[in-house]
């Protein structure tokens, strides 16, 4: 019944084209797969079916069920940011046309929803005409009415769309069945954001030095009063929008930039086969707290990337941008008129925001609470905020998502296995020294390696370095029974941290001039996670295509076998890096495929047959 109701509502929305306000209709829908369309979700087998570690074996089925629901449908209200502030769906990429594209599937699934452009679009080298099909990379499961990880809602007479974990960390197979935990490596986040009407609200994720903001000023009468009483002219919204669009369009499909450090350094979506793969995040910033830091990493993804408005309180210290200027840039061209700031009103941006804030008393526009160290940042929260919805307890939702992710395992690859070759590959793996870092039960030693030692592009490794300017050295959390909204005096507790963990976290957060590092990635699910390295730069195709320009940016899916060849063969890797560096957009977005120069080829004393054996082994590690 619910599905038919949503079909009727979806059809109505499409027919109306959002030109009529219907205040009496309210709904909220995101696809949560049933057992018959789930490939690798072991929830139905009970806790005994999970990969589990002793210290986390006390998770309950109910907690995992909640986490599964959160993973697929919880937005924490980010539809307000993406729809009403950023205007993601106000340009050529509309919710109506997403709905039309899904109806055309006639109940079948797809791993790349093609959506008609609602209007002409041209920014830099990217252009298309109205009616032209856009490759979004959005996945639609069989029988679904929305893309995986997209929540469609209607309230106050407006249709909005928000996103959940599943949009980046789940995909569908050729039969439209859902594979949880696998990165959606053709999802074009950069293009989707750039087609919005106020992408400038994402300016902190671009290569924009603070002093350059003055270069975008075109009208000196458009001014705001700063926190210290000075007057500052605002950057021209159209000029800034064009700059930010061009920057974000540099992100290859399957990646985004998750740091607010005024640098453009996208990373590819990681898999979420998370158990035993700590620390979390490519830079290893998640290490302490619940689930060995996984909950902190999940919180970072939501609190930092889903609502740029929420970072206004740390903008001055961390970004050297006045709070009033920051808010004015965010809201001067907001998609919805109610949230649009007018510099001629005479009202301070912070006063304006307080007056129209959809979540009064909470920083930003999504469902957040102030962390136990607020306004300071800590190793538990890169913004000093925690994502949590009213009616839950602090950390309850992100902990549930951690429990769900920790029970996910890669599906079987379906690749034929030659036992003799597999065993030979294991021998080569050990002889080449791979097991010294990628050994043990989860094929990782669970440590961070300094960026200059691993040799990969260092830009992302230092992504959290500026957080040191507003930081609490003592990580504090709330007790597990703390309700949301927070009581007037919630009980705070110090989170245990060893000296070794502190040293690792200082490296992961690039504090104390450490320069940052990268985690030793576990090797579960390598077949499902090509291309390789944090920037996704090691990419190769089945017909000799090398590098991101010849694969991802040419619509060719990187092949795990050939991409591993390029990772392990120094001659091929050199060509891959050269291809990446030859393209300015990749070079300036720090997508190079450099580093991790640990080769299994003739330069290190191994034959071609031995290299093939180790690839055979690596791709089938989790098939047994």
Strand order of the largest sheet: 1-6-7
Cα gyration radius (Å) = 24 Å
Gross geometry? globular
Count of DSSP E strands? 19
Q: Which blocks of ≥5 consecutive residues have pLDDT under 50?
A: 14-21, 43-55
Tell me the helix content. 25-40%
Portion in beta strands: 5-15%
Structural class: alpha+beta
Count of the domains: 3
Number of helices: 20
Euclidean distance between termini CA atoms: 41 Å
- How would you state the average pLDDT, rounded? 92
Largest sheet: 3 strands, antiparallel
Commentary on this structure:
- The structure is a single chain.
- This protein has helices at 2-16, 61-73, 79-85, 95-104, 166-169, 189-194, 237-248, 294-305, 315-319, 323-331, 349-356, 396-405, 419-431, 451-454, 499-508, 547-550, 560-568, 570-581, 584-587, 608-619; strands at 27-29, 114-116, 121-123, 126-128, 133-135, 150-155, 158-163, 170-172, 178-180, 223-225, 231-233, 255-256, 267-268, 368-370, 385-387, 448-450, 476-478, 492-494, 517-519.
- The longest helix is centred in the first third of the chain and has 15 residues, at 2-16.
- It has 3 domains: 2-54 and 71-183, no CATH class; 194-405, no CATH class; 419-619, no CATH class.
- The chain is globular.
- It is 29% helix and 10% strand.
- It has 624 residues and is of the alpha+beta class.
- The two termini are 41 Å apart.
Question: What attributes characterize this protein structure?
Answer:
single chain; 624 residues; alpha+beta; 3 domains; three-stranded antiparallel sheet; two-stranded antiparallel ribbon; 20 helices; globular
């Amino acid at each position: 019944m619910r599905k038919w109701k949503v079909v009727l509502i979806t059809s109505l929305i499409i027919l109306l084209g959002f030109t009529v306000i219907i205040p009496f209709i309210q709904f909220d829908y995101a696809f949560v797969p049933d057992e018959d369309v789930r490939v690798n979700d072991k929830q139905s087998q009970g806790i005994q079916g999970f990969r589990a570690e002793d210290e986390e074996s006390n998770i309950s089925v109910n907690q995992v069920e909640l986490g599964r629901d959160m993973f697929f449908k919880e937005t924490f209200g980010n539809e307000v940011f993406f729809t009403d502030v950023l205007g993601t769906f106000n340009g050529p990429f509309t919710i109506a046309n997403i709905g039309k594209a899904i109806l055309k599937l006639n109940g079948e699934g797809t791993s790349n929803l093609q959506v008609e452009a609602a209007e002409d679009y041209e920014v830099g080298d990217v252009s298309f005409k109205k009616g032209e099909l856009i490759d979004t990379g959005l996945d639609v499961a069989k029988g679904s009415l929305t893309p995986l990880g997209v929540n469609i809602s209607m309230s106050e007479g407006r249709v909005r769309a928000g996103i959940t974990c599943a949009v980046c960390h789940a995909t569908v197979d050729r039969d439209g069945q859902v594979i949880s935990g696998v990165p959606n490596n053709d999802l074009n986040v950069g293009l989707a954001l750039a087609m919005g009407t106020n992408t400038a609200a994402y300016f902190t994720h671009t290569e924009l030095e603070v002093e350059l903001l003055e270069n975008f000023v075109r009208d000196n009468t458009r001014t705001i009063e700063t926190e210290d009483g000075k007057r500052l002219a605002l950057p021209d919204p159209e000029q800034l929008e064009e700059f930010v669009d061009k920057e974000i369009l540099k992100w290859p499909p399957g990646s985004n930039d998750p740091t607010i450090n005024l640098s453009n350094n996208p990373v590819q979506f990681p898999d979420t086969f998370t158990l035993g793969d700590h620390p979390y995040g490519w830079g290893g910033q998640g290490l302490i707290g619940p689930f060995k830091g996984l909950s902190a990493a999940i919180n970072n993804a939501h609190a930092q990337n889903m609502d740029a408005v929420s970072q206004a309180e740390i903008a001055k210290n961390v970004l050297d941008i006045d709070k009033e200027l920051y808010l004015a840039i965010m809201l001067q061209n907001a998609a919805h008129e109610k949230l649009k700031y007018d510099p001629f009103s005479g009202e301070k941006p912070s006063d304006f925001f307080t007056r129209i804030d959809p979540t009064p008393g909470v920083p930003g526009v999504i469902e957040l609470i102030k962390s136990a160290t607020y306004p300071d940042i800590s190793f538990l929260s890169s913004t000093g905020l925690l994502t949590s919805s009213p009616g839950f307890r602090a950390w309850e939702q992100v902990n549930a998502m951690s429990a769900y992710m920790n029970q996910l395992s890669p599906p079987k690859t379906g690749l034929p296995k030659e036992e003799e070759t597999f065993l030979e590959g294991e021998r080569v793996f050990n002889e080449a020294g791979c097991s010294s870092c990628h050994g043990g039960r989860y094929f990782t030693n669970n440590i961070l390696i300094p960026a200059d030692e691993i040799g990969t592009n260092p830009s992302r490794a230092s992504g959290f370095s500026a957080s040191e300017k507003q930081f609490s050295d003592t990580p504090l959390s709330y007790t597990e029974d703390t309700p949301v909204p927070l009581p007037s005096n919630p009980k705070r507790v110090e989170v245990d941290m060893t000296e070794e963990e502190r040293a690792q976290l200082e490296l992961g957060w690039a504090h104390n001039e450490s320069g940052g590092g990268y985690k030793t990635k576990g090797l579960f699910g390598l077949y499902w996670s090509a291309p390789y390295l944090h920037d996704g730069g090691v990419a190769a195709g089945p017909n000799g295509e090398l590098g991101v320009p010849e694969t991802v940016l040419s619509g060719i899916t990187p092949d795990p076998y050939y991409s591993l060849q390029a990772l392990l063969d120094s001659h091929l890797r050199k060509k891959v890096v050269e291809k990446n560096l030859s393209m300015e957009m990749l070079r300036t977005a720090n997508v190079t495929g450099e580093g991790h120069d640990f080769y299994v080829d003739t330069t290190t004393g191994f034959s071609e047959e031995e290299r093939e054996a180790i690839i055979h082994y690596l791709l089938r590690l989790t098939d047994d």
